[in-house]
Structure formats: C-alpha cells, structure tokens
Amino acid sequence: MNGIPVCGPEGPIRATAASQESPPAVRAVLFDFSGTLFQIATYAGRIRAALGRPVDDGAMDGLLDGLEAGLSDPEVIEAQRARDVSAKAHRHAFTTWYASVPELAPVADVLYGQLQAPEQWVPYADTGSTLDQLTCSGIALGVVSDVGWDLRATFAHHGLDRHFSSWVHSFEHHTEKPDPLLFQHACRELGVDPAETLMVGDNPAKDGGAVGAGLRSYVLPAGAAPGHIRGLDAVLRLTGLAGP
C-alpha cells in the first residue's frame, strides 16, 4: 500500500509522481452503518414499545426533551468517551443516556436491546438500489462502523448482507474511527489499495478521517429521516457509474 505524503499547512511538502496523475479508479467502497445506509426507528415509537403502554404526544415531548437534555449531562458525556471500543462500553454509554430520563431508567436495557434488533433498523430508500449497482459493476464493498455488536444480522434481515465482503466493527478491534487501523483492515480484506477506496459516512471527523489512511471520503449531510432518500446517488457519481 502506498505511503501518505507528509503535508505542511498548505499541502504535500514533496511532489510525487502519484500526486501529479489523476487518482486511480475506485475499486472498493466502504460504508458506515447508522445514518448512512440505515436509520433506526423513531425514538417515540421505540419508547412506546419499551414502556408497553400508550404515551400521549404531550408526555412524549417531555420524554424527548429529557433525552435531548441528557446529551449535556456530565455523566452521560463521560460515558460516551471510548464508547465504541468494546461491547461493554457501548452498552454503558447508551443505557446511561437513556437512564438520564427518570421515566426511562427502568427500560434503559430494553431500549438498548432495540439497537441490536434487526427489525428496528430501516434501510434508506436508495440503499438497496445503490448497493445493487455497485455490486453489479464489480466494485468491492465493506462496512466500517463504530458499533458495539455484529451488524451482519441486521443486513441479512433486510437482504443486504450479500453485497459485502468485509465487516469491520470497532468493538472487535478495540478502537474507533478515525483510527487508520480500521480502514486499512477493510482494504486488506477486500484486496484493494487505500488509494482505490472510497469511504462513505455521515460524520466528518470519523468517516472523513479515512483520508488520513489514504482513502477518499464522502460525507453525507445530516438529517435524513428513516426510510427516505439518503442521497446515495452521489456515490454512484464518485465511482463513475453515473453522470455528474
């Protein structure tokens, strides 16, 4: 695999033959999971299911306000540190957040269990068609996700696991994106050079950090609702499978 040139504030210090040529064609695409290919069911629906009773809209707004406020709770913030380096840390981070809302504390483990339930996740409307086109064009695909459990069952539940030849879960490597180790491991499993690989995600710091490992990166805008169009047609353009 090619080395990454040393850069100063304005760019590479030494010009190389590689930097003077067009970038190589994309032979592989790595995808993040949540917020990129899938989105979990709404918090309101999950909370009603976890509580096992009706919750009117006013009461639900209060619970959702509590979750939002919990994101600023010092204990919750501390629990998020190194959240994705182990299954234990991941569970602790999420259950601590859920439990920051007193009414949800008794069902914090139930809410966490929903995360691991394949049926709770919804592929975006353009996920399947995008993966189909990439696979049919011979582009190798992998998943690189900061997560606390194995994602293959979720992809299989939706008939999408067949597209992927590499699965890199952060908790299995005891580190998190943007650690180059995760991206490099996926490239080795797919048999491609990082320079021939595109990372697609929704977090500029984590998924965009793939650039530090020698990959190209595309970061999707935030805010897509479950089941809606995600804008993955951009991936087809970046791989040369669709026009500009």
Automatic annotation (TrEMBL):
<dbReference type="GO" id="GO:0016787">
    <property type="term" value="F:hydrolase activity"/>
</dbReference>
<dbReference type="InterPro" id="IPR023214">
    <property type="entry name" value="HAD_sf"/>
</dbReference>
<dbReference type="Pfam" id="PF00702">
    <property type="entry name" value="Hydrolase"/>
</dbReference>
<dbReference type="InterPro" id="IPR036412">
    <property type="entry name" value="HAD-like_sf"/>
</dbReference>
<protein>
    <submittedName>
        <fullName>HAD family hydrolase</fullName>
    </submittedName>
</protein>
<keyword id="KW-0378">Hydrolase</keyword>
<dbReference type="InterPro" id="IPR006439">
    <property type="entry name" value="HAD-SF_hydro_IA"/>
</dbReference>
